[in-house]
């Protein structure tokens, strides 16, 4: 009959079932595609972070970073073969990635700060779309991570230099420099850094004098060049048991900080109230200077030192050929030849100083208590007992109660930066990039201080000052 509709249901299902199955397949494929995209994104993020964690400023850091990323196991599922492959690019500046062809070569790991990781194109395997002859758009994910080291517990000061990279390339351990608090921003000038939220006042001087400054290079720190040379002297010289400056006793908030355990100065020392003396060449002798800085008042270029302190000519008629001979004759003539030989072999003044404390480079952070001449076997004597110019090496003037045991009290950790570039150069990463370790060889005088370069802080030798931060970087 014309009105018989018994077969319509079969026709309806014959048409609808394939459509419904197709919709189900699309829903499943869509879910799998979203999952694959999320997995690819997670994989690229994890790979970038793993690679950045291995960027430790060493020459071989780039191959190591690539290996660390490729070792990850959280690879995307549902992907065709090769969908988990990664491409890498490395750069010192984020802007370098604007050139699609740019990447640091493998041997430039010391410069690498940023890593870009891009996954290979990935598409679904065994998808419904593939059965009907259609292929979804392949997925590709990109992530960028940075590896930054931030310096903390450092001296709140900057060694000004117009080209920090050139300083880093030419400085050598044992070379002496004359740094000056002169109110300038030229090479060789020192400028203090004010903490965030502070401007003026004595906080910068307290941080400079402090034994535990708890100071970190942070965004927006302020450069300060208006420190009086005499105030700078006071803040530096408490390390030498000097609590009397040119203007009288140092400020009470500076006097609370202890000196170093070995404070031989090379200046006549009558009493704790005696004022600073001018540079002199008579006993007791200080640690030998580079020949370029010998004399009553070092003048000339701040970086004139050549690192020749061990062979610098003698200054007196003691029969010594070199200034090192004079120093050993005056301070260690009563010691055995074995100790004298060890001191003579010290590669730097800092190593000689550590040896006088019974330490070495591996134990320089070990506390040493020299009160009561407990370390007479190695400590300098400051001259013969009968000498009127004799100077004790152990502190006798400090009136506080903090331990006088840290050899690193004679160390300054200074950021090397272009002071003319402030405030743009005053980023935490920039200031932390090149932090120089300097040994203060003599007290500061009229804002001028002689220091010996010991090296730049690196992740493998940072004296506990660098904090490693790895994070993803959002890019457009």
Task: Please trace the helix and strand order, writing H or E for each element.
Answer: HHEEHEEHEEHEHEEHHHHEHEEE
Structural class: alpha+beta
List the uncertain runs: none
User: Which radius of gyration do the C-alpha atoms yield?
Assistant: 33 Å
Terminal CA distance: 69 Å
Helical stretch count? 11
Short synopsis of the structure:
The protein has 476 residues and is an alpha+beta fold.
How would you sum up this structure, described in words?
- The protein has 476 residues and is α+β, with helices and mostly antiparallel strands.
- The protein has two domains: 9-148, no CATH class; 157-468, no CATH class.
- The chain is 25% helix and 15% strand.
- It has helices at residues 8-53, 61-70, 128-131, 164-170, 203-209, 229-237, 252-255, 323-332, 337-344, 349-356, 428-433, and strands at residues 86-91, 114-119, 142-151, 157-160, 176-180, 190-194, 222-224, 244-245, 248-249, 411-417, 435-440, 448-456, 466-473.
- The protein has a seven-stranded mixed β-sheet. A four-stranded antiparallel β-sheet has the order 1-2-3-13. Strands 8-9 form a two-stranded antiparallel sheet.
- The radius of gyration is 33 Å and the shape is elongated.
- The mean pLDDT is 83.
């Amino acid at each position: 009959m014309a009105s018989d509709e018994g077969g319509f249901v079969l026709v309806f299902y014959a048409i609808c079932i394939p459509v419904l199955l197709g919709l189900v397949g699309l829903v499943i494929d869509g879910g799998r595609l979203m999952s694959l995209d999320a997995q690819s994104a997670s994989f690229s993020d994890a790979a970038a972070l793993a690679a950045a964690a291995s960027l430790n400023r060493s020459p071989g850091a780039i191959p190591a970073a690539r290996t660390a990323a490729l070792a990850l196991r959280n690879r995307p599922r549902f992907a065709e073969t090769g969908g988990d492959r990664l491409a890498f690019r490395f750069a010192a500046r984020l802007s370098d990635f604007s050139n699609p062809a740019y990447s640091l070569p493998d041997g430039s790991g010391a410069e690498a700060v940023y890593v870009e990781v891009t996954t290979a194109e990935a598409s679904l395997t065994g998808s419904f779309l593939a059965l009907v002859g259609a292929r979804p758009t392949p997925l590709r994910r990109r992530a960028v991570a940075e590896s930054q080291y931030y310096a903390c517990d450092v001296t709140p000061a900057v060694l000004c230099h117009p080209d920090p990279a050139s300083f880093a390339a030419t400085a050598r351990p044992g070379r002496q420099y004359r740094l000056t608090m002169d109110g300038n921003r030229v090479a060789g000038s020192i400028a203090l850094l004010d903490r965030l939220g502070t401007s003026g006042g004595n906080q910068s001087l307290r941080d400079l004098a402090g034994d535990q400054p708890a100071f970190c290079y942070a965004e927006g720190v302020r450069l300060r060049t208006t420190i009086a040379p005499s105030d700078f002297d006071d803040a530096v010289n408490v390390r030498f048991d000097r609590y009397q400056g040119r203007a009288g006793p140092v400020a009470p908030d500076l006097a609370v900080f202890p000196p170093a355990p070995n404070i031989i100065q090379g200046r006549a020392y009558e009493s704790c109230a005696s004022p600073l003396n001018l540079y002199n060449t008579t006993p007791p002798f200080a640690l030998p200077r580079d020949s370029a800085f010998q004399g009553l008042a070092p003048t000339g270029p701040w970086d004139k030192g050549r690192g020749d302190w061990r062979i610098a000519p003698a200054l007196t008629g003691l029969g010594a050929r070199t200034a090192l001979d004079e120093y050993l004759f005056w301070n260690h003539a009563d010691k055995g030849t074995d100790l004298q030989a060890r001191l003579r072999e010290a590669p730097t003044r800092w190593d000689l100083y550590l040896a006088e404390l019974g330490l070495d480079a591996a134990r320089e952070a070990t506390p040493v208590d020299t009160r009561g001449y407990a370390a007479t076997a190695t400590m300098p004597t400051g001259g013969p007992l009968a000498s009127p110019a004799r100077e004790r090496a152990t502190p006798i003037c400090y009136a506080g109660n903090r331990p006088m045991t840290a050899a690193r009290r004679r160390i300054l950790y200074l950021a090397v930066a272009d002071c003319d570039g402030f405030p743009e150069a005053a980023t935490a990463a920039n200031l932390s990039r090149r932090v120089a370790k300097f040994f203060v060889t003599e007290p500061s005088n009229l804002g001028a201080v002689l220091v010996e370069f010991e090296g730049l802080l690196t992740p493998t030798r940072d004296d506990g000052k660098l904090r490693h931060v790895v994070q993803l970087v959002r890019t457009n």
